Amino acid sequence: MQRRIDMIDDINFNQSIITISSNRPIYVNENKTIRETVDIFLKFDIRRLPVVDKKRKLVGIVTVTDIINAFLRDENFDKKISSIMNRPIFCYQNEKIKDVIKKFKFSKKGGFPVTDKNKTLVGIVTEHDIIDFLKQENIKIPIKEIMTEKPFFLKPMDFLDSLMLISNTGYRKFPVIEDNRIIGILTARQCLGILKSANFSRKNINFNLKDAVIRDVPIFSDSDPISKLIDYTREYKVGGGLVIENNNLKGIVTERDILEKIII
After folding, report:
1. pTM over cut 0.85
2. To 5 degrees, how large is the angle CA 131–CA 132–CA 135?
3. CATH topology of domain 143-261
4. Among 3.10.580.10, 3.30.460.20, 3.90.1640.30, 3.30.1060.10, what is the CATH number of 5-136?
5. Three-state secondary structure string covering 98-162
6. What tens digit of pLDDT does each residue of 154-171 get?
């Protein structure tokens, strides 16, 4: 059941987005190298970085997936990050929260740089910030109403092949199944750390992805209320989890599912 944002009780969606954004955004200068940018991603455990000029004007955005794509194209990691950055989708600091939520839904992006009227970077807002904002609301709708059923999953394969699937699908995380049993989850951020450890060399990643999966995976029942998912993502800083029944994968549920299917 979908609910309009102006019908969710006791939450003011007309506030300016800057009120819930991080006002100390992590960013990268356009002249930094791809290699240096990887270090920033891993140090702060983030998925996206605004790219700015020397005056902190927003000029681009780069994501973990962009780095993986650069690796698969055999890019020189000593090139400037500006060579692989994308044109940014951003929001102004005085935009209303409800309008930015719509921007999340239509763009399918996980976060936006926040700027002043001169496009100077002043913050960043992510799906997680929106979910944290929703903590005020005890959403009792069961997870089964928003989860993605029969999600795409991986079986044990060469790690390099799994990188290609991340690149081709644009998905940020995959359940991994072996012998009809969940053995873990693979995320794009995790893959970036592995590539760094391998010194971005293909010859150093000749192993099976099952040796790299995250084994400690958040698990939910499809009858759990969405408020339980919200509480978990806030406490453990994760973007979602798996829905399991009788040791079988029923679905995957993420912060994006909440934004797309609960708030319209």
Report:
1. yes
2. 95
3. CBS-domain (3.10.580)
4. 3.10.580.10
5. HHHHHHHHHHCCCEEEEECCCCEEEEEEEHHHHHHHHHHCCCCCEHHHCCEECCCCECCCEHHHH
6. 999 999 999 999 999 988
